[in-house]
Design goal:
By secondary structure, this protein is an alpha/beta fold. It has helices at residues 14-30, 78-82, 86-97, 108-114, 130-136, 162-174, 177-186, and strands spanning 2-7, 36-41, 48-49, 55-56, 70-73, 101-105, 122-123, 141-142, 148-150, 154-157. α6 packs across α7. The radius of gyration is 15 Å and the shape is globular.
Length: 195
Amino acid sequence: MRTIGIFVFDGVEELDAVGPWEVLADWTQNWPDDGWEVVMFSRSGDPVVCAKGLVIQAPLSWETVASVDVLIYPGGHGTRAQLDDPSLISWVRGIQSTGAIMTSVCTGSLVYAAAGILAGRPATTYWSALDLLQSLDPTIELRPDDRWVDSGEVITASGVSAGIDMALHLVRRLVSAERAREVRRAIQYDPAPPV
């Protein structure tokens, strides 16, 4: 069984984490023979308070989560303090060194930039954080108009709801376009904004 881990933390933007969770949990629970599972975890395994007040109980911690084949790093204002957290940056680099696919949603890409993971790569982030992303690493090729950018070992998604699109792309990449369409239909994701 291969594992996708969604890392959550105080100040995480709710939909950045829960949007991909919905896509990936529907996929892994309804098509278990594909051989994937998705887990949510935090640094300590304690509950986290999200950006808008939702509390998420992530039952696993850095120490108790199995090795992950894909890391999803959501964004939110909580990422700002993480940019100067040496132990967190080291942990992110350690996950990358295992060969995991590194994915981010929204300002999760800022942490990847601080860790040097986006050096020389195309990437995106939340629209109001594009300048900060560029300042963290001027070698990043910004893609401000892309919902998500797949550069091989790293996939970045722009803000909030774009994490759903990135997660569907991930299903397509890991299994097939047909499976991704089945999951999209299962969660009835048919974007047609009313405004």
